[in-house]
Predict the structure.
Amino acid sequence: MDKNKLFITNTGKYLDDYINVIEKDDSNKKYDMVWNLISEPTIENKSLNEIYVNNFIEKIEYGNDFLRVMLYNFLQILKPDGILRLGCGEDFEQNKKIKAALKDYEFNNVEICKYDQTIYPAKTTKPPVKKGLSKLHLGCGTKYFEDWINIDNNSDNNIQKLDINFDLRNPLPFPENSIDYIFNEHFLEHLTVEESRRALLDFRRVLKPTGKIRIAVPGLEGVLNLYNDPNWKEAPVMKTFGFDKIIKTRAEMLNINFRAWGHKWLYDREELERRLKECGFGNIKFCKIRESSDPNLQNLETRDESDLIAEAEKIDFDNTFFTDAV
Ligand SMILES: C[S@@+](CC[C@H](N)C(=O)[O-])C[C@H]1O[C@@H](n2cnc3c(N)ncnc32)[C@H](O)[C@@H]1O
């Protein structure tokens, strides 16, 4: 008999009737599946009778986007009359927050009980939408924006504050048409051209029909201008990083820009515009640093060397034509 109940636990407890899920591979525990709860579930949509989360939910703060994405994922895989069962602790304040969150996220009949008794029937599958504008700051690095959802895979392991630790080469854990703004700075050039094409298509997917993206990268033109400048070593960007002391030749400078820091693909205006258009963005505007006609997109750049900045809007398009383009 196929199991249609999920048990999520970190304690090592194993329930025979359930598909037992743990967050991270652990050879000391018996489990059936590893799932971090915020990446896209590999379980079929609307297939589960029950999700039972034990000794876990109380550790998540309400308002944390992790909770939001997790509940959304649960709603996707639960049957419309499925049940979310939470083993809450006795922290009354925290339980109150969880209760409020579950109500926000369209779980009905919420009742908090002690220990493992709590049962939350999930009656609707309306996706959880954060109150106010939903804004994604992608590849945020150490630059945390307070009213944005800050996402990065923390590749250098140096990020102290992050909302979602996530590899942006995967589909974003948000429903389509749910996000108002996307911003990224010095991120896109870290993806191969194929990865960026898939990512841009997915960014478009999650944006609302009125949604906008702003992309800031180190532009190829600036790099080539530097190469052709007899006084290239005196340029502010060379001084900023102390490169004027380290880099000996213009060829070295050029190669570093293409290959160092994990750079995979550099853009000039023509290339960025082409890639955006191919991925269903229109009304493309090139902007000066920190300037925008949209107040939500003003003063976002954190780096003076962001010298190629584009804003674009989600438009209707048929992406089948570009399926094989690279
Ligand atoms: C040059 S840093 C820029 C960080 C920040 N935006 C800034 O301007 O300081 C590039 C960032 O992209 C992130 N990044 C690169 N590839 C990524 C991926 N596949 N998924 C998520 N983040 C990624 C890195 O972890 C890093 O924090």
Summary: The helical segments are 65-77, 92-104, 193-206, 220-227, 236-240, 243-246, 250-259, 269-278.
